[in-house]
Amino acid sequence: MSRKDRIRRHYEPRIRAGREHYDILDWASSASQEARFGVLADRVELAGRSLLDVGCGLGDLWAYLRRRDIAVDYTGVDLLEKMVSAARARHAEARFVCGDVFTQDLFPPESFDVAFCSGMFNLNLGNNLEFLPRAVGRLLILVRDTLAINLLHRRRPPAEDRYFCYDPQEVRKLLEPLCGRVTILDDYLPNDFTVLCGKKKHP
């Protein structure tokens, strides 16, 4: 089964009226979802900058930033057509694109100041540690400054094996060759950590 088919099989049945947004996106609660958004908003300069929300789901990050009065040039991208349609219906003023940034040339290089991936790497696809650096390398092409991703932490693994948990120091070793800097933030939730990847500056 392809990566896209596994993701579609996991998420599309969850998209239905009356279900909470955080539950559709497979977060434990709205508080935990927003804790991840808060790390991005509090640690990365966003105001007045362009932001690519990769695996944007229902556009909840856009709504969160608006509530905090953080003005960004926002673009959400998701590979599931149903998810993008639902996001557009909820947030007609935002820009959403349907496609796969890892296999399609959806945007020119350095189109965005910042890119963010929240929960995108948490499903166990059988090759997570191989896919992660390839995906990060691809996303770094699209940004001028910073890529932020959050991952499930190995210190608090979920009961179900459909999720993949990461060791922060192993992730650091995988990503340092690709990035100008790697910062690990793991003090906001017991089962999660965020990686800030700075773009390498070329002379």
Key terms for this structure?
203 residues, alpha/beta, 7-stranded mixed sheet, 7 helices, globular
Write the layout of secondary structure elements.
Layout: H1 3-11, H2 21-24, H3 30-43, E1 50-54, H4 60-67, E2 73-78, H5 81-90, E3 95-98, E4 112-118, H6 128-142, E5 143-152, H7 168-175, E6 181-185, E7 192-198
Parallel strand pairs: 1-2, 1-4, 2-3, 4-5
Antiparallel strand pairs: 5-7, 6-7
Could you describe the 3D structure shown?
The chain has 203 residues and is an alpha/beta fold. It is built from seven helices and seven strands. A seven-stranded mixed β-sheet has the order 3-2-1-4-5-7-6, with helices on both faces. The protein is globular and about 40 Å long. It starts with a helix and ends in a 5-residue tail after the last strand. The relative contact order is 0.14. The model has no long low-confidence stretch (mean pLDDT 88).
Question: What portion of the residues fall into strands of 2 or more residues?
Answer: 15-25%
Q: How many individual β-strands?
A: 7
Distance between the termini: 43 Å
How large is the radius of gyration? 16 Å
Low-confidence blocks of residues: none
Helix content bin: 25-40%
Strand count, sense and closure of the main sheet?
Answer: 7 strands, mixed
Give the spatial strand order of the biggest sheet. 3-2-1-4-5-7-6
> Mean pLDDT, rounded to whole units?
88
In short:
The protein has helices spanning 3-11, 21-24, 30-43, 60-67, 81-90, 128-142, 168-175; strands at 50-54, 73-78, 95-98, 112-118, 143-152, 181-185, 192-198. The protein has 203 residues and is of the alpha/beta class.
